[in-house]
Amino acid sequence: MILKQYYLGCLAHASYLLGDEASATAIVVDPQRDIEQYLADAERFGLQIRHVFLTHFHADFIAGHLELRDRCGATIHLGRRAEAEYTFSPMADGDMLQFSDLRLQILETPGHTIESISILVFDLEKSPSTPHAVLTGDTLFIGDVGRPDLRASLGWTADDLGARLYDSLHNKLLALPDDTLIYPAHGAGSLCGKQLSSDTVSTLGDQRRMNYALQPMPKEDFIRLVTTDQPDAPQYFAYDAILNTRERVTLDSNLEKVLQPVALDEVIRLGDSGAHLLDVRDAAEFARGHLAGSINIGLGGQYATWVGTLLDRLKPIVIIAEPGREQEAALRLGRIGFDYVRGYLNEGMAALAERPDLVWPTERVSATMVAAELLSDDPPLVLDIRNPREWEAKRIPESLNIPLNHLEKRLAELPRGRRIAVYCAGGYRSSIATSILHQNGITDLIEMAGGLAAWDAAKLPVVSGT
User: How do the domains of the chain map onto residue ranges?
Assistant: First the structure.
């Protein structure tokens, strides 16, 4: 038996390849949309990918089930409560796929979604009766459980799904042996829960002891616990959940269409017509000079998640990248279904060499320089664009907190006649924020390089609490 985990850090997403060498069969669970790694490993192990499972209709990424179906002829398996446009094999509680040395058995575990399933994995060489592992999708995470509030737009209340989640955990998953390995679909950084661990595998026994949501409590208390204080869900989540139910264009087909160079004059025209001019370079490079009106969401951070949070998927996107990184930028947009890409700026920022009038810089300074300005007779307003939990834990004194995902809606709270110093945790989100402020005519800005980490390193004062 083969069990390999693939972890995609930028989306905090885990997928799996299961293999039975004796029958040369591979099964892929919760694949990302770019599937080359699964194909390469299947070939290396001497396997054929014959089955692909989705534990549920994911909201935070587009799964690669259609890509594996079209490339390998793999059968798609979904929970029996699923409804989809494409042909699939519905899997009910107790259903099994059995091979020479591997057996998969389905547990219906609704709660995060109504169609959610978990997959018991039996290594038949070790034990035909005791599961080696369980792939829990978004039902049970390491350190957390799946949030039940993401299907409100589809007719399910958080309380109803929360009650089902409690039953799934207590009647199905917690009934398994303590040494069963837990392999979830997400880790720390995912917005599908609120306290996910950075660990990507655990045992049920450890989770029984350490996971706050698995501690003994009445169902009503559990529902209250898992439906409060959840992070804001990005606007693209509902779109992706629905798109995962539909027949759609595959990633390779779309990339072939959208990876086209676009001349500067056409990029300007598209921007004037409402297209997103998406600069994916590092924050320091963006600060040195960028195309007027562009937004900086760098490839070095949670690029796809922030694109899906801040950009309108109905508007076309033009990519501005260092030459050679355009494909990566478009591929990672494709992972969340942002396929409406019109191309990329031909030659990148070099295309602006003769148009300095279109190049905007951002004043990016050190933490000590910000601190010095705060002691001046006319100090800037300090804008903290981290989330409220981060702000309450530690912040620069007298800073104003407007989380990045709310910034554009709350611009009226910012003074127009006062200099603004923007910071985040490490400098990634602050670059996004300054580009949004620039787009909206707020240009008397300084961005603090290195964020609060640099402020701390300089031993400058901080406060905490509400």
Answer: 2-240, 249-360, 364-457
Whether the model pTM is above 0.90: yes
Give the residue from 298, 253, 235, 324 showing the smallest Cα distance to 71: 253
- The full DSSP string for 360-409 is E---EE-HHHHHHHHTSSSPPEEEE-S-HHHHHHSB-TT-EE--GGGTGG
Token pair listed for 321: 């990248």
> What is the distance of C-alpha 321 from the center of its chain?
21
Domains 2-240 and 249-360 share a fold: no
Classify 249-360 by CATH class: alpha beta
Look at strands 117-123 and 102-108 and give their pairing: antiparallel
Mean pLDDT of the chain: 96
Q: What is the largest CA-CA distance in the chain?
A: 77
- Domain 364-457 top-level CATH class: alpha beta
Q: Collect all residues with Cβ–Cβ distance below 8 Å to 121 and sequence separation of at least 6.
A: 1, 3, 18, 102, 103, 104, 131, 132, 133, 134, 135
- pLDDT of 209-230, one tens digit each? 999 999 999 999 999 999 998 8
CATH class, range 2-240: alpha beta
Tokens standing for 248?
A: 């759609």
